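Team,

Forwarding the record for the chain on the shared tracking sheet. I've put the sequence and predicted structure together so nobody has to dig through attachments.
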Amino acid sequence: MVDASPSRIRERWSDDIVVLELGGDVGAGAAADAFRARVIGLLEKGTRKVVVNLEMVRYLDSTGVGTLLALKASAVRRHCHLRFCCLPAPVKRMLDQLHLTYVLEVYAEEEQALKSLSHERERNASR
């Protein structure tokens, strides 16, 4: 586990998909910067599929929302796939109010997010 105080980032693989488990507070400062750097680093190394599990996030402010949007845009520009899952109720409520759950491709369960990326693999193989 990597500490990016006050948040934590844990990385694991599921086939060709990186799953990042984010915990703590995501807002202005070092936490958002560390999270952004980790995802951008993965994309720059050629990782094509990333799922961010937000289940252990306690707090997400407007800077954190901006970070999620910037990372999604960065992934799209690189022709990569980024999904988010397992949002705590307050975070989901905020993203729902901002109409961002569709834009960010948010899934209720990690398994659903992984499955959505497996479909990407099947779609690309049939081309």
